[in-house]
Amino acid sequence: MSHNATTKVAGVIGWPVDHSKSPRLHGYWLDRYGLDGAYLPLPVVPGRLESAVHGLSALGFRGANVTIPHKEAVIQLVDRVDAIAQRIGAVNTLVVSDSGELEGRNTDAYGFLTNLCMGGSDWVTAPDRAVILGAGGAARAVIVALQDFGVRQLRVVNRSRGKAEALRAVFGPIIEVVDWAERHEALADAGLLVNTTSLGMAGQPPLELELGDLPTGAVVTDIVYSPLVTPLLRTAAARGNPTVDGLGMLLHQAVPGFEAWFGRRPEVTAALRQHLLDG
Ligand code: ATR
After folding, report:
1. From the CB of 159, is ligand 1 less than 6 Å away?
2. 57 confidence band (pLDDT: 50, 70, 90)
3. CA-CA to 113 of 20 to 30 Å: which in 61, 130, 191, 267?
4. How many angstroms separate the alpha carbon of residue 160 from the centre of ligand 1?
5. What is the pLDDT of residue 257?
6. pTM of the full predicted structure?
């Protein structure tokens, strides 16, 4: 589609950004709905984040996604931060208002929970206890999502115990901190297991985790989506646990941003999933 002065423009700010699947994802929806829009990769080195973010409004952008390594730093650069982004401590979606103000939002918790609930669990109510592996930025989004869903206890297991303790200081007694060495036993009584570490991702070390103590009814999900079926998900499925892969989180977190920028709420479909897996 050719572009002109009325084309609605958005993009993804990151460094590096060439690995990002967001242009393929938003490009699919723009084509599918025949919208006059464009979504661009926007490589921004860390030292130029402020100028880039302030330039969005000046250039007439509708907004942008923000990815590694800028998600935390960008929070200081916007006019308003929504409540969820404040709790997560990071922004992944910027929306420029008609008056040129910049709002920072975070749709990762929404994406995580929507994927979890649509992707394989048949929960009517939240499980009592979840185990979360990892205590980085992704873990914070998962914690906010599960807290809002109504999970009563979140057992955070992290290699660096201090980072898990810092989460307890922020989120309170809903967080139980467990040493990395005790991760296998920590699975007892869990209704949900979430891997938010990079372990198991293509090119990263494996996740060494014995699932023997995990109830077979517990849902297992992985933030990692490359490979789509991680060794954790394969092992869990083989012993009968319901599993949810991580690709759906990426797809669902993109929905609110697309709607805000381009004016139409897009659908997450099997064809979209396949389009992402093909590219
Ligand atoms: P993200 O924003 O994706 O969460 P991150 O903030 O860098 O990324 O967090 C990565 C997580 O993977 C952390 O919990 C990290 O553990 P540490 O806090 O101890 O660094 C975890 N992780 C990465 N490599 C790991 C490894 N080899 N063993 C155990 N945990 C690992």
Report:
1. yes
2. very high
3. 61
4. 8
5. 98
6. 0.96
Q: Which two tokens stand for residue 137?
A: 């930025």
SS3 content of the chain, % helix, strand, coil (to 5): 40, 20, 40
- Spell out the SS3 assignment of 198-223: CCCCCCCCCCCCCCCCCCCCCEEEEC
Give the separation between CA 59 and CA 172, rounded to whole angstroms: 42
What atom of ligand 1 comes closest to residue 198's alpha carbon? Answer: 12
Q: 118 pLDDT band (50/70/90 cuts)?
A: confident
Instruction: Tokens for 68, please give them.
Output: 């590694």
71 carries an active-site annotation: yes
What is the distance between the alpha carbons of residues 1 and 233, in angstroms, rounded to a whole number? Answer: 40
State the pLDDT at residue 260.
Answer: 98
Cα–Cα distance for residue pair 94/66, rounded to 1 Å: 7
DSSP state of 144: H
For ligand 1, mutation pick of 197, 224, 250 (most atoms within 8 Å of CB): 197
Residue 192, helix vs strand vs coil: strand
* 160 Cβ below 6 A of ligand 1: yes
Looking from the CA of 145 toward its CB, the CA atoms found within 13 Å total: 24
* Tokens representing residue 81 in the block: 């931060």
pLDDT score for 125: 78
